[in-house]
Amino acid sequence: MNVRLEILESVPSTMDIARERAISGEVTFSNTGEPSLHGVMAYEQTAGRGQRGACWFAIPRQSLCATFYYRDAYSSPERPQEVSLLAGVAVLEAIRQVVGKRENAPQLGLKWPNDIILNGRKMGGILIEMAQARDGKWGFLVGTGINLSTPSFPPAIASIATSLAQEGLPSCTCEEMAELIALQLARLSALRAEEGFSAIREIWRSYDLTRGRRYLYEEAGERRVGVAVGITDAGHLLLELENGSEVAVQTASSIKEVYV
């Protein structure tokens, strides 16, 4: 597959640029979902956002800031969690290609819904949004931020953030990482079409670093603490509450990790 990326010098948000392209019809999709452009990448992002509207810290040319277009036969507003997990696997597989096989393999995995965790700290994240294209059909925008060659971080996040370079691991250019992710998205889309979402879900579970974490869960004004025990078949986070019951969490905004 020939990866086609729109590469920009500096933008407020690649997600916003990608949304404009999809809505205006500048980016189109084939009958099988293949986009005319695979994504938007910027060397600098001045107003990138993460989960819950948080700002995303990124040093120009040292962190990947990109948004990818994704559509397949199952793309609909009712199934965002499936694409969220697929995107997480795609990014992990791309990073593993860069890191390669090592005797002392780093702890690299995913924290639900899609934080990229390296040796206990966050090295990247994925934000999924939707856009209705000019043809009236829905597609997904896969916003991705990954710390590649960043040597250090501001004091406020230094204890929780990391990068490939900071961990002494092989890195790559932003363009190379973006191309690898686009290729993995296409590969996993084909796998999903052939074997179903269960194939994607099981790969995600093999990367899961969420199990055992404690969360404060809020529903209907009531707050309870639960421990993550995995994900459901639909891809939602499964918490075991203090009373022994289990609850499936569908959105990250309804939970907050509790550090003991």
Helix-strand blueprint:
Blueprint: E1 5-11, H1 14-24, E2 39-45, E3 63-70, H2 80-99, E4 108-111, E5 115-118, E6 121-132, E7 138-147, H3 174-195, H4 197-206, E8 214-219, E9 222-231, E10 237-241, E11 246-249, E12 255-258
Parallel strand pairs: 1-2
Antiparallel strand pairs: 2-3, 3-7, 4-5, 5-6, 6-7, 8-9, 8-12, 9-10, 10-11
CATH superfamily of the largest domain: Bira Bifunctional Protein, Domain 2
* Strand percentage: 25-35%
CATH topology of the largest domain: BirA Bifunctional Protein, domain 2
Provide the CATH top-level class of the largest domain: Alpha Beta
Span of the ends, CA to CA: 47 Å
Annotation, overall tally of beta strands: 12
**Average of pLDDT:** 91
Largest sheet: 7 strands, mixed
CATH architecture name of the largest domain: 2-Layer Sandwich
- H/E series: EHEEHEEEEHHEEEEE
Radius of gyration, in angstroms, nearest whole number? 18 Å
- Largest sheet, order of strands side by side? 1-2-3-7-6-5-4
Shape: globular
Please indicate the count of domains.
2
Low-confidence stretches: none
Structural class: alpha+beta
What is the tally of helical segments?
A: 4
As a percent range, the share of helical residues equals: 10-25%
How does this model look, in words?
This protein is α+β, with helices and mostly antiparallel strands. The chain folds into two domains: 5-206, Bira Bifunctional Protein, Domain 2 (BirA Bifunctional Protein, domain 2); 214-258, SH3 type barrels, CATH 2.30.30. The protein is 24% helix and 31% strand. It has four helices and twelve strands; from the N terminus they run βαββαββββααβββββ. The chain has helices at 14-24, 80-99, 174-195, 197-206; strands at 5-11, 39-45, 63-70, 108-111, 115-118, 121-132, 138-147, 214-219, 222-231, 237-241, 246-249, 255-258. The strands form two sheets. A seven-stranded mixed β-sheet has the order 1-2-3-7-6-5-4, with helices on both faces. It has a five-stranded antiparallel β-sheet with strand order 11-10-9-8-12, with no helix packed on it. β10 (237-241) and β11 (246-249) form a beta hairpin. The termini are far apart. The model has no long low-confidence stretch (mean pLDDT 91).
